[in-house]
Write a structure and sequence with these properties.
With 414 residues, this protein is of the alpha+beta class. Helix content is 23%, strand content 35%. The longest helix has 17 residues. The relative contact order is 0.24.
Amino acid sequence: MCRLSMTSLFICLWLVRKSHGGLGDTLGELHTEFAVSLYQTLTETDNNSNLIVSPVSISVSLGLLQFGARGNTLSQLEGALRYNSNEVRMQDFLMQVPGDTGNSSQAVRVQLACALFVESGMQLSPVFTQHASAWGNSSVLHTNFSQPNHTRSQMEQWIRSHGNGEAHALPPGDLSGLAEPQGDPPRWGQLQMALVTTVAFRGAWQKQFLFADTQNLPFTLSDGTTIKVPMMYQASEVNFGQFRTPTDHRYTVVELPYLGESLSLLVALPSDRKVPLSQLELQVSPHAVGLWASGLRRTKMDVFLPRFKIQNRFNLKSALLSLGISDIFDPAAADFGGISAEDGLYVSEAIHEAKIEVTEEGTKAAAATAMVLLKRSRAPVFKADRPFLFLLREVSTGSVLFMGRVMNPAEQAP
């Protein structure tokens, strides 16, 4: 059975003690707007590498912080997310976003969870604790930050239990390397809270790719060079559409659903081989993604998609600053008075890691049948044999769980 496995993996927001010294659109569109803005911000510094990010895990983390934010800190979070977590309809919407769902065969599974690791003895606001317990499948756990090895182990165990069982080690720098704006590392006694969010996805395609149909085919890189990569193939009816960017570049989109069709993978590809993917990335918008959902038509096609594996780790501070979220990182400006009545808190670091692997189940070194493709019908072809963009989204809400691009399928994930 063809299977896609994707695991986000975490965003860590480290909160340390301060040193003494309007919603007109649908909520689904707002989630997409944040996803696109975040993705485009990340691509500004690097447009030649593979990329994967989980916007929903980051927005859920920031949404949880809204419950404890006050004043301008809250305004900045609301400005970037375009919603306030305290609104009832936002909380109702989040209940529709996958928390821990799957079918009896576990062929498709989505697991979203948050954990607040709180310094033992720290008194949280009862109202904030109530919100935290109901937000994004959250839980509040106590720890002792003066014992970093134990805390790191506790967090890794939690991440493993909420990330399809995979281990994702927190590098020592994620704890001991935290730095004040002045560059001095904080003392462990200052650490008060860590917010960790995971989104894990594992799914089988509605229409299987067969390993016997996979063969090494050319993939053209952005610099024009060509490499051979394992290219999966299927002939089936899929949702397909042709669109134009505001700058009149044509591109095509295909939707590949997972079993149950509640989640799907959208793959977008410039039609003109001479147009770089960056031209499409710059033009992607929530409106465009909405048009994809309504403008795709069932079409019998030959679909080619390369196997790929991507893993990225980001320090989100610069990206969030670009989105207008600055006060949370400023010990003199951050206002998290709604979290605790104790000394003020601010966010020292925001770390995010995501991973995706698209492949057939049980792939092993074996020769593919080269004759298979010589007997294909004359159906239209969608062939992802050059850099492409992808979004993994929930169909009913439009929430973007993962968003990324493939520049080189052969590039090895760390």
